[in-house]
Amino acid sequence: MTIMSKRNVCVNVEYLTRVEGHGNIVVDVKNGELKTCQLQIVEAPRFFEGMLQGRSIFEAQHITCRICGICSCGHTLASIQAAEDAIGFTPSEQTIKLRKFLLHMENLDSHLLHIYLLVAPDLLGVKSFVPLIDTHNKVVRRALRMKKASNDVCDLLVGRHVHPISSIVGGFTKLPKEKDLDAMLNILYNMRPDMEATVELAATLKFPEFERDTEYVGLVSDDAEYPMLSGEVGSTDGVRMNKKDYKKITNEFVVPHSSAKHAKLSRDSYAVGALARFNLNAGKLHPKAKAVADAVGLKPKCINPYLNTAAQLVECVHSLEDSIQIMEDLKKNGINRDETVIVGLNEKGTIPVKPGNGVGAVEVPRGILFHNYEVDEKGIIQKANCVIPTNQNVNNIEHDMKKLVPEILDKSDEEITLALEMLVRAYDPCISCSAHFLDVKFVNL
Amino acid sequence: MLTSEVKEALKASKAGITLIITVGNSLRSDDGLGPYIAGKFKQTGNGYLLLDAGDKPENVVDKAVDYKPAKTVIIDAADFGGAAGEVRIIPEEAIPDSTLSTHAFPLRVISKIIADDTGSKVLFIGVQSKNIALGEKMSGEVKVAAEELLKCMKCTC
To answer: I need a labelling partner for B9 at 20 to 30 A (CA). Which of A134, A275, B75, B114 fits?
Structure first.
């Protein structure tokens, strides 16, 4: 590769739009040599772990879902899983099915919005989603329909479009009725043509070509299911560990330029998210999702981070089809309403509690999410720890940037800036889970 | 005190339904303006209908279109550098592409769809917020503005 030698680059973007939250990219190129390349997360910690101390595991999910308005269901499920693991509670098969369904809806909702609102404008050559209402009116309306559909299903299942109410430790306080199952199925069936059109659109989009081999981390299992809610933690470098050993997986460390912790496993950095899941478990996807992967040219092991968006599209198809399968099964076999759990703060001891240490590991839209609670004999949380996917990705993004910048120094300042913005966006970072705004600055010394 | 421009914007349309869409998050202090107005608004049959979009405006578009409003007024807390509680008509082009969240639909897209599908005139009313930190309590200034807006809709002054 020929680096455009002694060039200095000076680009200063006030803040990068279309990522959730705030942060800074600082790139320092002097005489063609990359001096500094950092993704700075500068926000103060939010202390959710501190808020959980002294609270009951039976209310923890209502607190932790507020960590994020985008992956509130994921935080709820990780929280519940950690709590149930700590007290040794095994949820029923029906509960697990409904939880998988809920997670699918959140992944659909989040992925679709990332694809349409945050990434598509770059690939269609406009600055934001808004101008598409004039140039791609049908696309905008389709995105709106699909977003509303996944929101409405969440509302039917857990009582609210965001921040679920009825999903708790032990199961669900309200189980869907026959008419709810019909309504949800109807919404999902109606989503199929829109999903097909989304795939057709995505197949026409051209993603930047860039590759960097890295380690991909996510849930893995020995069964045939694409693991989102169960299994062990594995990596494309051959690591396989119990979720209880999550600290040995994340190996979190601090760097001076970021208030978000960084993570690494077998190499300098690792990636989590849709592309990681695809690289680890592509063979377990629904056949329709596999067909879409083929159609968009996505094959494991894919090491182009920009194609995380393509992996999200593949997962959308998987989530839709698997959700329909779950709902059809529940409709066919009927919902066991005796499993409705009214537990409150477990004042009546409805669910047996014992002291313990539990870990929840859930594949949320941006990657594997860990919650770890240590609880006493009353189910009161003594210690809590949450490891967010974006925090695990930040270090990997920086390493991508360090490889990308020297490769594109022959581009204009605007093109370099856009390439970096698109790279960060490809990870769909939720910096607001730990931080806010992303300014891009190139510094010439 | 509402300006004549704001009062005019809120005036019930003689051509048909005047649809008020309130937007906001009641857990974000002054951003709770929209839900606050929605909670106190009473359908009085004087030409107004209200939809509370909360922080998911995309979820009310279908209903809004079904109502076939002659005029649509979107009310939200805003930051336009005014005094806390100041109420202004916000020009469409001044509304940022991402208002609520990067993962919620931009208000400009929502308004364009309502306008295109119904022919409705769409206006934005912004109330200058004082504080949008986490919290359930609105500032006194914004609460006064909310009451004035409610009063204006009630009496169609």
So the answer is: A134
Which residue, among A15, A70, A72, A148, would best test binding to B if mutated, counting the most B CBs under 10 Å from its CB? Answer: A148
- Is residue B128 a contact partner of residue B80, using CB atoms and an 8 Å limit? yes
- The C-alpha atoms of residue A333 and residue A304 are separated, in whole angstroms, by 43
Of A17, A127, A144, the CB nearest to B58: A144
Contacts of residue B132 in chain A, CB cutoff 8 Å?
none
Q: Is the ipTM of this complex over 0.90?
A: no
Tell whether A118 is within 8 A of chain B (Cβ): yes
**Interface residue of A48, A73, A114, A147 to substitute, partner B, most B CBs within 10 Å:** A147
In this complex, which of B102, B108, B113 lies closest to A117 when CB atoms are compared?
A: B102
What is the C-alpha to C-alpha distance for residues A206 and A292, in angstroms, rounded to an integer?
Answer: 15
Separation between Cα atoms, residue A282 and residue A301, nearest integer Å: 9
Beta-bridge partner residues of A35: none
pLDDT digit of tens for each residue in chain A (445 aa)?
A: 444 457 776 544 445 445 566 677 888 888 888 888 888 776 667 788 889 999 999 999 999 988 877 888 999 999 999 999 999 999 999 999 999 999 999 999 999 989 998 888 888 888 888 889 889 999 999 999 999 999 999 999 988 888 888 999 999 999 999 999 999 999 999 999 999 999 999 888 889 999 999 999 999 999 999 999 999 999 999 999 999 999 999 999 988 888 788 999 999 999 999 999 999 999 999 999 999 999 999 999 999 999 999 999 999 999 999 999 999 999 999 999 999 998 888 888 889 999 999 999 999 999 999 999 999 999 999 999 999 999 999 999 999 999 999 999 999 888 988 899 899 889 988 765 543 233 445 554 3
Query: Which residue of A128, A133, A147 is in closest CB contact with B58?
Result: A147
Residues of B with Cβ-Cβ distance to A136 under 8 angstroms: none
Question: Cα separation of A34 and A32, whole Å?
Answer: 7
Backbone angles phi, psi at A167, to 5 degrees: -90, 115
Query: From B107, which residue of chain A is nearest by alpha-carbon distance?
Result: A130
> Do residues A198 and A316 touch, judged by C-beta distance below 8 A?
yes
∠A272-A426-B112 over CA atoms, to 5°?
130
Residue with tokens 């279109």: B65
